């Protein structure tokens, strides 16, 4: 089994290499395909990428605060409250999801509301 790095510093990279071999077969399809429209998002603090849009889902990686990241879509998931914000929007990356609460911009991390996963 490969080790999962604590922090991903190149957000635009596909996160597939971070999934331990045993989880890869059981993992659902990626939230988005790189062939689809992409958007740049920036976390204002380090944020975890999860396999599914919920806090107790498998941890895949951590996106670094201030680094531009490539996102592909948004979806509704578990409601998260932090820093005085409450939101059920999760940002979809190539291999996982992060709560929009932790990204700069509006409630959708500046993705258009039509960018549904």
In short:
With about 120 residues, this protein is mainly beta. The chain has one helix and seven strands, in the order H-E-E-E-E-E-E-E.
Question: What is the N-to-C succession of helices and strands?
Answer: HEEEEEEE
Q: Which geometry do the CA atoms define?
A: globular
N-end to C-end Cα span: 29 Å
Strand order of the largest sheet: 5-6-7
Number-wise, the strands total: 7
Query: How large a portion of the residues is in β-strands, by DSSP E?
Result: 25-35%
Uncertain parts: 1-10, 12-29
Counted by DSSP, the helix tally is 1
Largest sheet: 3 strands, antiparallel
Report the C-alpha radius of gyration, rounded.
Answer: 13 Å
Give the number of domains.
1
Mean pLDDT: 80
Q: Structural class of the secondary elements?
A: mainly beta
Helix content: under 10%
Main attributes of the structure:
7 strands, 117 residues, 3% helix, disordered N terminus, mainly beta, two-stranded antiparallel sheet
Structure write-up:
The chain is mainly beta. It has one domain (1-18, 29-117). 3% of the residues lie in helices and 31% in strands. It contains 1 helix and 7 strands. It has one helix at 21-24, and strands spanning 39-41, 47-50, 59-63, 69-71, 73-82, 85-92, 97-99. It has a 3-stranded antiparallel beta sheet, with no helix packed on it. The protein has a two-stranded antiparallel ribbon with strand order 1-4. A hairpin with a 2-residue loop joins strand 5 (73-82) and strand 6 (85-92). The longest helix has 4 residues, at 21-24. The radius of gyration is 13 Å and the shape is globular. The model is unreliable at 1-10 and 12-29 (pLDDT under 50).
